[in-house]
């Protein structure tokens, strides 16, 4: 990999433009637009207040910057530096801001989940949606046709609203009640046909709806404590993976909408069979004169490292993250009370194929958006950890920048490079 020199950034605000031409970063109250290949500065825009959020428009021509605390939003055109749009959200406050699909309007989520305001950049008119249940989840977009799906709370009951999100014609298409006690979140299938909804973690309940409100599936467990913690659709929309507080992943299919298998995070592995286990170790290198990290392939019975489960609100328990790869042939997951371990299953064969054990807790993991056999792990240290499929195995690459700790990573959408962030800087890494 080729690494660039480090550049300053604030709060991990680094974003590739959808057309892959630019990288936007924020430093306090300044937006910097860079060329995605060379990182040479193309534009700089100054905001009146510190920047807490930046978002590219879908067509990559506009960049949005917001101070959520003060409710200030600035929108700039990267091809016309003289054009500027300022929006002040006023007494309703601002918790979140998103672009509409057409890039001609923005959605402002007010404080206390009172409403969503859609501001048109063309007409300067506003459209209001009352009673969204959340500001940071519980909504999704369907691109074709352009619809906005929203979890709503009305008269102490949960609903899902489906809206046409054309800037010139925002209107409600359908609304239906959801059979939950306290709806936690929703997720739209990649093909835009199904909505999966799940209840608060106290109740284990999964519901599958069509966009016209027909319930296709209803699965619940009454006798097993806490419920759902994470949900992921496969790219084909034929499978839904549900990670739970009981440390299992249940895989639902689109024929019966019921579990076809349960993936278990075993605390002791007696016979790995096809399962390959890689463990990170520190080893002294005579070449570098210091300890470096490498992976050892482990055979035989193994006690999987885990932490003691604490009896307190939001315990570190259950499958907090599960993600399919780009072709849906693998799913990776981290069980929160095994924070140093990443599990990978083969979906066509329904078997575990890899267990990666790190020395430090895993902060994030990301599949390559294009390459199905490449997964990246970061643990808050100076290394990038890769799993490259069953044949190539694992690899560790050290970021060649002094005192640089990898806290977050963003793949370029074509999978050809990475933005790597620590607390105050970022660099780019290009694959050879």
Which features does this protein show?
six-stranded mixed beta sheet; globular; mainly beta
Net shape: globular
**Share of β-strand residues:** over 45%
Helix amount: under 10%
Mean pLDDT: 93
How would you write the strand order of the largest sheet? Answer: 29-28-34-33-32-31
Secondary-structure-based class equals: mainly beta
Organism: Gigaspora rosea
InterPro entries: Centrosome-WD_assoc, WD40/YVTN_repeat-like_dom_sf, WD40_repeat_dom_sf, WD40_rpt
Pfam family, one: WD40
Protein name: WD repeat domain 8
Please tell me about this protein's structure:
With 432 residues, this protein is mostly beta strands. Helix content is 1%, strand content 54%. It is built from 1 helix and 41 strands. The chain has a 6-stranded mixed sheet, with no helix packed on it. The longest helix is centred in the last third of the chain and has 4 residues. One of its GO terms (biological process) is microtubule anchoring at mitotic spindle pole body. Pfam families: WD40 (PF00400). This is WD repeat domain 8.
Strand and helix layout:
Blueprint: E1 2-3, E2 7-8, E3 14-16, E4 22-27, E5 30-35, E6 41-46, E7 53-56, E8 62-67, E9 72-77, E10 80-88, E11 96-99, E12 105-109, E13 115-120, E14 126-130, E15 139-142, E16 147-154, E17 157-166, E18 169-177, E19 183-188, E20 194-199, E21 204-210, E22 215-221, E23 228-233, E24 239-244, E25 248-253, E26 259-264, E27 268-269, E28 276-285, E29 290-298, E30 302-303, E31 319-324, E32 330-335, E33 341-346, E34 351-357, E35 364-367, E36 375-378, E37 383-387, H1 389-392, E38 394-398, E39 408-411, E40 417-421, E41 425-430
Parallel strand pairs: 28-34
Antiparallel strand pairs: 1-41, 2-41, 3-4, 4-5, 5-6, 7-8, 8-9, 9-10, 11-12, 12-13, 13-14, 15-16, 16-17, 17-18, 19-20, 20-21, 21-22, 23-24, 24-25, 25-26, 27-30, 28-29, 31-32, 32-33, 33-34, 35-36, 36-37, 37-38, 39-40, 40-41
């Amino acid at each position: 990999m080729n690494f660039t020199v480090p550049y300053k950034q604030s709060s991990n605000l680094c974003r590739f433009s959808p057309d892959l031409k630019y990288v936007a970063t924020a430093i306090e109250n300044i937006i910097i637009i860079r060329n995605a290949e060379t990182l040479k500065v193309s534009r700089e825009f100054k905001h009146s207040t510190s920047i807490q959020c930046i978002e590219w428009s879908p067509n990559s021509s506009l960049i949005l910057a917001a101070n959520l605390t003060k409710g200030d939003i600035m929108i700039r055109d990267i091809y016309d530096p003289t054009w500027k749009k300022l929006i002040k959200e006023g007494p309703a406050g601002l918790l979140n801001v998103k672009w509409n699909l057409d890039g001609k309007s923005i959605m402002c989520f007010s404080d206390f989940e009172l409403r969503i305001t859609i501001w048109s950049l063309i007409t300067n008119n506003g459209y209001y949606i009352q009673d969204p249940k959340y500001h940071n989840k519980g909504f999704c977009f369907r691109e074709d046709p352009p619809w906005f799906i929203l979890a709503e709370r009305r008269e102490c009951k949960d609903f899902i609203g489906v809206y046409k999100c054309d800037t010139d014609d925002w209107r409600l298409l359908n609304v239906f009640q959801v059979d939950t006690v306290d709806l936690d979140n929703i997720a739209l299938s990649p093909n835009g046909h199904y909505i999966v909804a799940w209840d608060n973690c106290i109740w284990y309940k999964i519901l599958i709806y069509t966009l016209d409100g027909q319930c296709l599936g209803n699965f619940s467990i009454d006798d097993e404590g806490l419920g759902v913690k994470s949900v992921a659709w496969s790219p084909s929309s034929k499978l839904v993976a549900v990670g739970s507080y009981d440390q299992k992943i249940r895989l639902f299919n689109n024929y019966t909408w019921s579990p076809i298998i349960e993936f278990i995070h075993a605390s002791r592995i007696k016979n790995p069979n096809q399962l390959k286990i890689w463990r990170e170790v520190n080893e002294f290198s005579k070449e570098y004169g210091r300890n470096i990290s490498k992976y050892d392939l482990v055979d035989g019975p193994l006690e999987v490292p885990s932490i003691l489960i604490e009896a307190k609100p939001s315990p570190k328990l259950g499958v907090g993250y599960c993600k399919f790869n780009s072709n849906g042939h693998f799913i990776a997951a981290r069980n929160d009370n095994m924070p140093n371990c990443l599990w990978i299953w083969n979906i066509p064969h329904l078997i575990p194929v890899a267990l990666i054990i790190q020395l430090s807790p895993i902060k994030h993991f990301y599949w390559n958006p294009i390459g199905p056999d490449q997964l990246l792990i970061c643990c808050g240290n100076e290394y990038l950890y890769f799993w490259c499929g069953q044949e190539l195995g694992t690899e560790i690459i050290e970021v060649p920048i002094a005192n640089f700790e990898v806290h977050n990573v963003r793949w370029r959408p074509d999978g050809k490079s990475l933005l790597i962030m620590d607390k105050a800087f970022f660099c780019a890494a290009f694959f050879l």
